[in-house]
Amino acid sequence: MNTGIPLKITETVLRDGHQSLAATRMRTSDMLPVLEQLDEIGYFSIEAWGGATFDSCLRFLNEDPWERLRTIKKYLKKTPIQMLLRGQNVLGYNHYADDVVSEFVKRAVDNGVGVIRIFDALNDVRNLEASMRAAKESGAHVQGAFVYTISPYHNNDSFLKVAKDLVSLGSDSICIKDMAGLLAPYKAYELVKTLKAEINIPIHLHTHYTSGMASMTYLKAVEAGVDIIDTALSPFAMASSQPATEAMIAALEGTERDSGLSKEKLFPIADHFRTIKKQLTETFNLNTNIEIDTKVLSFQIPGGMLSNLLNQMKEQGMADKFPDLIEEMPKVRAELGYPPLVTPTSQIVGSMSAFNVMLGRYKVVPREIKDLARGKYGRTPAPIDPEFLKTLIGDDEIITHRPADDIKPQMPALRQELAEKGYPNASTEDVLSYAVFPEVALKFFESNR
Amino acid sequence: MNTGIPLKITETVLRDGHQSLAATRMRTSDMLPVLEQLDEIGYFSIEAWGGATFDSCLRFLNEDPWERLRTIKKYLKKTPIQMLLRGQNVLGYNHYADDVVSEFVKRAVDNGVGVIRIFDALNDVRNLEASMRAAKESGAHVQGAFVYTISPYHNNDSFLKVAKDLVSLGSDSICIKDMAGLLAPYKAYELVKTLKAEINIPIHLHTHYTSGMASMTYLKAVEAGVDIIDTALSPFAMASSQPATEAMIAALEGTERDSGLSKEKLFPIADHFRTIKKQLTETFNLNTNIEIDTKVLSFQIPGGMLSNLLNQMKEQGMADKFPDLIEEMPKVRAELGYPPLVTPTSQIVGSMSAFNVMLGRYKVVPREIKDLARGKYGRTPAPIDPEFLKTLIGDDEIITHRPADDIKPQMPALRQELAEKGYPNASTEDVLSYAVFPEVALKFFESNR
Ligand SMILES: [Co+2]
Ligand SMILES: [Co+2]
């Protein structure tokens, strides 16, 4: 407790909470009845857009994500709306041209986003440049995020270096993004201390309860002086989501870092979301029985993925080789330069390891592995051994420049395509929806435009 | 982290874990396959008996609880079996004669219990005397426990006083029993510091995740030097149970209080219990969707009970008086001398408050309230105003002595009764089963003796 400054809180119930526990199925109409109450709580921000919500709106809910944003903005008059952006990937898993990235960010801010958290799965800050620049120009609060992971190449100093790069790019705050719930409490303490010692803008911590440690991690981060944490109202908290907002408020009441927020004001809002969760579970036949997964701490791979791999090996009559797979995964990750194991890299490393065990090492190399190795997604955290790289990619081009430099502007062609498909007067927002999720967007337009 | 001593852990999956999350329905056969593995972990103890398991064995599972104990003991060769005992209430909610209490404890130890945690719902240590004496004589590790609660009459000094009384009665260790999950992290830190400063035997902390704070509470207690914590393997952890064993081990790895236990060794055992939980849920049609309940932090009454009370008031067409009820409850609790709100006192205070709001204050006074007020369960934490007491109990006797002093020996009569019912050669264990759950035990005997 070395600062006397109240802890700030970002509420995630409208984005990561239901993305983690209800397959991103919360509808705008589920949010409306309590938006004004949420606006009165005094949150630093309310995360309500980006991540998987954009895709889910179009694909499953027959909602225009841009319309959702504008609607939420109407009710959240005081509290900034926060969104999550995958840097050059915008909201998908491929790199887009700078003009798409830039336009997307500007439209997001114009339609109501106040805080943009931007990250890259490899922590290659070049993949954040275009989006951060656009966000700055739009006047949003720009939060540069780095992904937390564990490897011999990741430590407090390496994270500090990335954080400083993010400051140089104009971050208004820095986010430690621990999407896998790997950050242990005392490691969080040291990391936050390291960052706070050298960085003058606020530090924001995002973690998941996946491994069961999240609230402890927040507590030690708060003691180390972290400025903001992400929490979700209790019905959409814990398990694979964030710690509960009410519990974190209560734990710090009366301490130096008391958030000053009223948990009592949250009770009726939480009651609302408890009902919503029940409804979503029934309507969309969701699995509500999500448990913590402590194996992630040993393997960095979610337990669910491990069972899937085991099943695949069983089908091949090779279940006895599963222990080899467990040993193979960290080797493969090391050889590929220690990418953080998040979607989609965890799947990529997992299947590569399974192939290696079943067919012989690197006898079959999927396209994604080659692209990752040759720098198509950006720089891997550790360099890849040149000779190993050669055996992996053969004569494929090695990319050392910013990957998006290879991508020509896409907006004019996208507009053209949409015109040809019958939407000559598509709004820029619709063009952007089409840019990131073409098929899904077209299907949405068919019944809504 | 002011001690360099490894944290010790008590595993609760075989008792409180399934009592909290699976209606105490785990069967002995569900435990057997992993008992030997559990014995190898290095736990301080494994809680596996007492609490609601005794009743559940006889009532729902057609199992002899004594037989379960002997079976478990066969496999747990190194790790002490721990049980939970409600002092003079043994395993029920009424006081028994000293001879029943004493015999029950002795038989429990003889059949395999190594550590006995003994508590009284009012923290009246006179209700622990008989059981603690018997436990000492039997050679068990005797853990005197006090119930944590929040009131103007409960503070670190009052808890220290109870703890010292428990030491005088021969405790080998002291347990802070936070059954409602009310103990906040920094309060736990101060409480443990207070106890550790003046008490030389180990301090054991038991809490529940009910309010979402439990793992944070453990973390701060560990920093304050707590010796032992209660955790449950992840499938039976969190929500209304304890923090996950694997997560607590992981959180402390590499710190001064590293438990030294291997979470990797726990993964296959947890996998087993994940399957068991699924089976129990299906077989007994259990509600698996147990969430944390943050309202308990404001009202000390579980949210589920609040909804029940609200429904009762709705049925009476008095739902509009629910806010009055919320204000009435702390008043009633204060007037009754601030009993800790645990089963059954929470229900007693809840219904008294509902009566007060609906019918006028203390117009109708249930028997349980009169008994509580006149000292039939023991001394209330705060004295009750004599004039108020008079209006409440009229000319009923006030009990200031140890309540069990009024109860004559019961064992001979119980034996006699059983003989008359057709069991003249009943074992002492069977007599004790009959003593605490007469109808249920008789029904069990019918089909098993
Ligand atoms: Co997240
Ligand atoms: Co308990």
TrEMBL record, chains A, B:
<dbReference type="InterPro" id="IPR003379">
    <property type="entry name" value="Carboxylase_cons_dom"/>
</dbReference>
<keyword id="KW-0436">Ligase</keyword>
<dbReference type="GO" id="GO:0004736">
    <property type="term" value="F:pyruvate carboxylase activity"/>
</dbReference>
<dbReference type="Pfam" id="PF02436">
    <property type="entry name" value="PYC_OADA"/>
</dbReference>
<dbReference type="GO" id="GO:0005737">
    <property type="term" value="C:cytoplasm"/>
</dbReference>
<feature type="domain" description="Pyruvate carboxyltransferase">
    <location>
        <begin position="7"/>
        <end position="267"/>
    </location>
</feature>
<keyword id="KW-0670">Pyruvate</keyword>
<dbReference type="InterPro" id="IPR000891">
    <property type="entry name" value="PYR_CT"/>
</dbReference>
<dbReference type="InterPro" id="IPR055268">
    <property type="entry name" value="PCB-like"/>
</dbReference>
<dbReference type="Pfam" id="PF00682">
    <property type="entry name" value="HMGL-like"/>
</dbReference>
<dbReference type="InterPro" id="IPR013785">
    <property type="entry name" value="Aldolase_TIM"/>
</dbReference>
<dbReference type="GO" id="GO:0006094">
    <property type="term" value="P:gluconeogenesis"/>
</dbReference>
<protein>
    <submittedName>
        <fullName>Pyruvate carboxylase subunit B</fullName>
        <ecNumber>6.4.1.1</ecNumber>
    </submittedName>
</protein>
